[in-house]
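Fig. S4 source data, part A: sequence.
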Amino acid sequence: MQQEPVYIHNVDVSKIVNRNEKRVAELIPQLLNDYYQDFIFEDLDIQDIYALTLNLIPAGYAQSGSIVLSNRLSDFEINSKIRIAVERVLENPTRASR
Protein backbone atom coordinates (compact mmCIF):
# COMPACT_ATOMS: atom_id res chain seq x y z
CA MET A 1 0.00 0.00 0.00
CA GLN A 2 1.48 3.31 -1.13
CA GLN A 3 1.58 5.98 1.56
CA GLU A 4 0.31 9.45 0.75
CA PRO A 5 3.05 12.09 0.88
CA VAL A 6 3.04 14.27 3.99
CA TYR A 7 3.90 17.94 3.56
CA ILE A 8 4.84 20.65 6.05
CA HIS A 9 5.11 24.12 4.49
CA ASN A 10 5.30 22.47 1.05
CA VAL A 11 8.22 20.26 2.16
CA ASP A 12 7.76 16.49 1.67
CA VAL A 13 8.55 14.82 5.00
CA SER A 14 7.14 11.39 4.12
CA LYS A 15 10.57 9.91 3.46
CA ILE A 16 11.71 10.44 7.05
CA VAL A 17 11.80 6.95 8.54
CA ASN A 18 12.40 5.29 11.88
CA ARG A 19 15.63 3.33 11.33
CA ASN A 20 14.68 0.91 14.10
CA GLU A 21 11.59 -0.37 12.26
CA LYS A 22 13.67 -2.31 9.74
CA ARG A 23 16.01 -3.66 12.43
CA VAL A 24 13.11 -4.89 14.56
CA ALA A 25 11.48 -6.52 11.53
CA GLU A 26 14.75 -8.30 10.71
CA LEU A 27 15.36 -9.52 14.28
CA ILE A 28 11.88 -10.81 15.16
CA PRO A 29 11.87 -13.92 12.89
CA GLN A 30 15.20 -15.22 14.20
CA LEU A 31 14.23 -14.70 17.83
CA LEU A 32 10.88 -16.44 17.31
CA ASN A 33 12.62 -19.36 15.58
CA ASP A 34 15.28 -19.64 18.30
CA TYR A 35 13.13 -19.29 21.42
CA TYR A 36 9.46 -19.75 20.54
CA GLN A 37 9.43 -22.56 17.97
CA ASP A 38 6.73 -24.41 19.98
CA PHE A 39 4.24 -21.57 19.47
CA ILE A 40 2.09 -20.82 16.46
CA PHE A 41 1.87 -17.07 15.99
CA GLU A 42 -1.03 -15.68 14.02
CA ASP A 43 -0.78 -12.57 11.84
CA LEU A 44 -2.19 -10.34 14.57
CA ASP A 45 0.31 -11.77 17.08
CA ILE A 46 3.22 -10.79 14.82
CA GLN A 47 1.75 -7.31 14.29
CA ASP A 48 1.30 -6.90 18.06
CA ILE A 49 4.86 -8.06 18.76
CA TYR A 50 6.23 -5.64 16.15
CA ALA A 51 4.19 -2.67 17.41
CA LEU A 52 4.88 -3.38 21.08
CA THR A 53 8.61 -3.72 20.44
CA LEU A 54 8.71 -0.40 18.60
CA ASN A 55 6.88 1.22 21.52
CA LEU A 56 9.48 -0.17 23.95
CA ILE A 57 12.51 1.29 22.17
CA PRO A 58 13.41 4.87 21.34
CA ALA A 59 12.59 5.96 17.82
CA GLY A 60 15.54 6.61 15.53
CA TYR A 61 14.21 8.88 12.81
CA ALA A 62 16.40 9.97 9.92
CA GLN A 63 15.98 11.44 6.49
CA SER A 64 17.98 10.50 3.45
CA GLY A 65 21.38 12.16 3.38
CA SER A 66 21.27 13.18 7.03
CA ILE A 67 24.07 12.80 9.51
CA VAL A 68 23.15 10.19 12.10
CA LEU A 69 24.93 10.47 15.41
CA SER A 70 25.75 7.08 16.85
CA ASN A 71 23.03 6.31 19.35
CA ARG A 72 22.33 2.98 17.74
CA LEU A 73 20.76 0.32 19.93
CA SER A 74 22.54 -3.02 20.04
CA ASP A 75 20.85 -6.14 18.70
CA PHE A 76 20.94 -7.43 22.29
CA GLU A 77 18.92 -4.42 23.50
CA ILE A 78 16.37 -4.80 20.71
CA ASN A 79 16.10 -8.57 21.23
CA SER A 80 15.42 -8.04 24.93
CA LYS A 81 12.53 -5.71 24.03
CA ILE A 82 11.24 -8.23 21.46
CA ARG A 83 11.20 -10.89 24.20
CA ILE A 84 9.20 -8.58 26.46
CA ALA A 85 6.73 -7.94 23.64
CA VAL A 86 6.39 -11.66 22.85
CA GLU A 87 5.72 -12.50 26.49
CA ARG A 88 3.05 -9.78 26.69
CA VAL A 89 1.35 -11.10 23.56
CA LEU A 90 1.45 -14.66 24.87
CA GLU A 91 0.02 -13.54 28.23
CA ASN A 92 -2.63 -11.29 26.66
CA PRO A 93 -3.64 -12.70 23.28
CA THR A 94 -5.89 -10.50 21.15
CA ARG A 95 -7.08 -13.41 19.03
CA ALA A 96 -10.28 -15.35 19.64
CA SER A 97 -8.84 -18.81 20.28
CA ARG A 98 -5.62 -20.64 21.05
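Fig. S4 source data, part B ends here. DSSP finds three helices and four strands in the chain.
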